[in-house]
Every structure is written in C-alpha cells, then in structure tokens.
Amino acid sequence: MIIVLKPRTTEENILRVENMVRARGLETHTVRGEELTIIGCIGDTVRVDPRLFEVDKSVEKVMHVQEPYKLANRAFHPEDTIVDVAGVKVGGDHMALIAGPCSVESEEQVIEIAKAAKESGANMLRGGAFKPRTSPYSFQGMGLAGLDILCKAREVTGLPIVTELMSAEYLDLFDEKVDLIQIGARNMQNFDLLKQLGKTKKPILLKRGLNATYEEWIMSAEYIMSSGNPNVILCERGVRTFESYTRNTLDLQAIPVIRRLSHLPIIVDPSHAGGKWWLVEPMSKAAVAAGADGLMIEVHNNPECALCDGGQSLKPAKYDTLLKEIRQIAEVVGKKM
Ligand code: PEP
Ligand code: MN
User: Fold this and answer.
1) What is the spatial distance between Cα 148 and Cα 324, in angstroms, rounded to a whole number?
2) Can you tell me the distance from the alpha carbon of 220 to that of 44, in angstroms, rounded to the nearest whole number?
3) Helix, strand, coil: what percent of the chain each, to 5?
4) Above pLDDT 70, what percent of the chain?
C-alpha cells in the first residue's frame, strides 16, 4: 500500500501519518520529493482498510499495490492447488469431467444419465436438487428427495456427486452426503453463506457471479478459505454482457487470468455460458485448449422434456463424442484424461 500525501505536507504531519501506519502493525518507508511525499507501507496490508488513511487531512490518495486476497493468491502459494473430491483430483494435470442433468427429476433419469456419462469418461455426477430459478413459478427442484436420488446414483456408479447448496440450513446434511458442494452464481456474494462453508472441509465449487470481476470472485474464494476451508475450485460459467443472442458470454480469458492470480483450480461450465447445446462442443474444446482444469456439462437423456435447461443440455451420445475429441486437446496441453 502506498500513501500519497498532499503537496507541502509538514514534517509534523508526515510523522503523524507514519505513526498511524505503524499503529496498524505496518512498517513505513517514506520518500520525500520536492513537491510530494509518499509513504510506502510494508507488512500485512491485506488486513488494513485504506479508508482509514484516505480520510486524513494530509492524505491525497491511497493506492494498493498488492491484491486484497492472500490465501487464494498465487504470489503466496506458487504451486497449483490440487483439490481431492472423494478420490478424484482436480487441478495440476488432472481434469474434472462433471456431467449430469441440470435438475434431478427422477431416480431412473439420474441413474441412466450417470451410467452413460461414466461410460463416456465423466468422473463426477452433477444434478440440482435445490434450484435457484429466476421465476418462483418454475420448477424449484426436488429438494431433499433429489439429494437422496443423487446418493443412490453414486452408489450405483461410484461417481462422486456435485450439487448446489442454496442455504446454510442444509450445510450439515450436504457435509454428510455431498462430495463437492456447489455455490451457484447467484450466491457467489452471499457472504454469510460463504463464511459458513468454513465449517466443512468438503470441497466447494464456487461459480462466478453473473457480473463479478475476477477480483470479486477470488475474494469470495478468500471468504471460504479464511473461514477455514482451503478446498475451493472456481468455475467460469459465463458473464452478463450486452449480447442477448446467447444466455451469457463465456469468458475464456478467465482461465489464464485466474491461473496467474490464484493457485486454485478453475473449471468451465459451457452449458450455462452459451445456453445452447450446440455451443457446448466448441466452447468445451476452447476451454480445454486454454488450460481449464475441467468441464461441467449438462447432459440429459430427454432434453426436449427436461424440467430445466433442456435447450443447453447434450444428449449422452453427443457427450460421448465430445469427450473423445477433447482427449486429444487435453493431451496437447499436458492434461491427463
Ligand atoms: C447450475 O449449475 O445448476 C446453475 C444453476 O448454474 P449457475 O449458478 O452458474 O447459474
Ligand atoms: Mn442448469
């Protein structure tokens, strides 16, 4: 953090601001120019609110030179984090291949899709039991009954299960039953919920908020990590732009940017990004080529009749072809599949 003082600040005031900084546990390194004096603050600046100094009568402005996150920061943890989801590794040269319906609709549906996806090479099963729908009149998910169906599908296929937690009310239950707890785009900045996630050591799949910046997204990961759970996987799922032809716009740049800023794994959900099934294949390929640590794809055995997101779901046969093609791209970028 750098504090720029107002022109012609007196020695007395320079000393006073330096003392304020030191009182916060930081060291100071002051440079006196002819017009301007700047105070470099050295130490754990992440915990210091710059507004404390901004309001001071002698201070012109305060600039952060370091990111406001620490635990998620690549600078403090140069090697890639590899998250273990019930034995399936995510990050490094491992690929998470998560597939399944948007929503759990019935036991037959989920088990049929899970078996087919596993056959194709998927290593995790997704399915929403609690659904964050825009309309209160849309299907809201099967709730706890849906969760039991996912557990059954895990029993049958051995695939770890991924499902969305919308309320801390069910955290204990999810901790007991779910292998990878998804926090959806709409809850990315539900800070109370994020803080509660420190109570579990279960891995968290943190989706990017609809219009969250990289820094806001990483700060949400920081919330989870600082509350005691280091097992976070980030998921790019498209952001809102002016374009309305597609549901969202897939931000492929998120992959190299997150990789540079953070050591956490990053996967891509091309289904919710484009909102169209035929965009899933090209965007999945692009995501893997750009270095994604995995893909979360909606797969449905009867998309025409799906209760949610049928139009963006792949049929199992299409998913199968996609994974075959992706295998070659993964090899080129040094990922195991
Ligand atoms: C989902 O994956 O089921 C979902 C609702 O996604 P998002 O939170 O990214 O909209
Ligand atoms: Mn969906």
Assistant:
1) 31
2) 19
3) 40, 20, 40
4) 100
Q: Can you give the pTM of this predicted structure?
A: 0.94
Please report which residue ranges of the chain form alpha helices under DSSP H: 11-23, 51-54, 107-120, 144-157, 171-177, 191-196, 214-226, 254-261, 270-274, 277-289, 316-332
Q: Which amino acid is at 102?
A: C
C-alpha to C-alpha distance for 12 and 300, rounded to whole angstroms? 70
Cβ contact 10:30 at 8 Å: no
Q: Is 173 helix (H, G, I), strand (E, B) or coil?
A: helix
The answer to whether the Cα torsion of 321, 326, 329, 331 is positive or negative is negative
Which of 165, 182, 220 to mutate to test ligand 1, by most ligand atoms within 8 A of the CB atom? 182
Q: What is the pLDDT of residues 309-323, one digit of tens each?
A: 999 999 999 999 999
The two most distant CA atoms of the chain are separated, in Å, by 77
CA-closest residue to ligand 1 atom 10? 185
